[in-house]
Structure formats: structure tokens, C-alpha cells
């Protein structure tokens, strides 16, 4: 089972990008076991597949829904189709958890407007890269919060114990 805080954050993030015109597909999540004893990958063809396979987690509206800690997931590889542009444009991002992702693009536009479209394309590539790395940072912070808690938030209010973390290293050490 994936941790609700992280999968929910990824799902909302990708849903917001789709609202902006960037359709996600070929979503590959790098998952670190909650015991931090290894990693595995989960692949989804579309955002709808990600939702369908995690429906029980994402649709849980119980007040204690954040009580259960699951495996920590992060976007590793993803493909976007840009529906905002007037030309065909797809962007693929690989190895995001390295923080220096490899980026490939597939575009098809009118040859005599190359300079404009190249500039336009580079803006989209940079926007998506910054957004993806921001989501990675957000999920790292969520995972580290889970790891550094003395007690389960379902049993004790956060101000009950000191702010001194139980685990002093970051989930990034497991990438």
C-alpha cells in the first residue's frame, strides 16, 4: 500500500497539470518501502489508471485517513502531452529523483516558425521540470515528516511531543 499523503499529493499535482493542459501518461513511480529496506516501481499508463489502482486510498474521506503509513512514492519517469500549444508536443522526463532529469521532447511544427516554437517549447519544458522537481521536494518533505515523528498523529496531537526528530537522515538517502 502506498502512503496516502504522498500518492494524494502526486494525484492532485498531476490533476492540476491536466487542468493546465498537460496530459500525463506513462507514469512511473519509484517506491521506497516504508521499512526502508528496498525500492520497487509502479507503472501507470494514464492518470486515470493511477486513480483506479489507488481509488480505495484516494477516496477515503475518514478523519483518520492519514493514520496508516504506507510505502513512500515519488515520480521517477513521466510523459506529458501539451494540449495548450497549437502544434504536437510531448515531453518525457526520466530519472527525476536524481534531481537532474533527462528530458526528451517530440514536437512537430511549421519549419518557418522554428525560432518562435523553439522558444515556446523551451518555456514548457522548463515549467514542467520546475513543477516536477517542486513536487519531488514536497513529497520528500512529507516523507521526512512521517519518518521524524515520535508518535502516530492519530493518537497524540503534534504539540504533545518536542520537535526533535526521531530519524535524522532524509528519505533521499534511499534513492
Q: How many DSSP-defined strands?
A: 5
Percent of residues in beta strands: 25-35%
Strand adjacency order, main sheet: 2-1-3-4-5
Structural class: alpha+beta
Number of domains: 1
Percent in helix: 25-40%
Mean pLDDT: 87
| Straight-line distance between termini | 19 Å
Largest beta sheet, briefly? Answer: 5 strands, antiparallel
Please write the string of helix (H) and strand (E) elements. HEEHHEEEH
| Number of helical regions | 4
As a whole number of angstroms, the C-alpha radius of gyration is: 18 Å
Q: Rough shape?
A: elongated
Assembly state (oligomeric) = single chain
Low-pLDDT residue spans: none
Key terms for this structure?
175 residues, alpha+beta, 5-stranded antiparallel sheet, 4 helices, 25% strand, elongated
Description:
It is built from four helices and five strands, in the order H-E-E-H-H-E-E-E-H. The protein is α+β, with helices and mostly antiparallel strands. The protein has one domain (4-174). Strands 2-1-3-4-5 form a five-stranded antiparallel β-sheet. It starts with a helix and ends in a 28-residue tail after the last helix.
Amino acid at each position: 500500500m502506498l502512503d496516502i499523503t504522498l500518492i494524494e499529493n502526486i494525484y492532485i499535482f498531476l490533476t492540476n497539470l491536466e487542468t493546465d493542459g498537460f496530459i500525463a501518461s506513462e507514469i512511473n513511480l519509484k517506491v521506497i518501502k516504508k521499512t526502508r529496506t528496498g525500492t520497487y516501481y509502479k507503472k501507470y499508463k494514464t492518470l486515470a489508471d493511477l486513480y483506479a489502482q489507488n481509488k480505495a486510498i484516494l477516496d477515503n474521506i475518514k478523519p483518520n485517513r492519514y493514520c496508516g503509513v504506507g510505502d513512500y512514492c515519488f515520480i521517477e519517469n513521466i510523459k506529458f502531452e501539451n494540449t495548450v500549444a497549437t502544434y504536437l508536443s510531448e515531453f518525457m522526463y526520466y530519472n527525476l529523483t536524481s534531481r537532474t532529469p533527462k528530458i526528451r521532447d517530440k514536437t512537430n511544427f511549421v519549419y518557418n516558425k522554428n525560432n518562435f516554437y523553439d522558444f515556446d517549447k523551451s518555456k514548457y519544458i522548463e515549467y514542467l521540470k520546475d513543477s516536477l522537481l517542486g513536487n519531488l521536494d514536497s513529497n520528500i518533505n512529507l516523507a521526512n515528516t512521517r519518518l521524524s515523528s515520535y508518535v502516530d498523529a492519530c493518537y497524540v496531537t503534534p504539540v504533545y511531543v518536542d520537535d526533535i526528530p526521531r530519524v535524522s537522515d532524509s528519505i533521499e538517502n534511499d534513492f
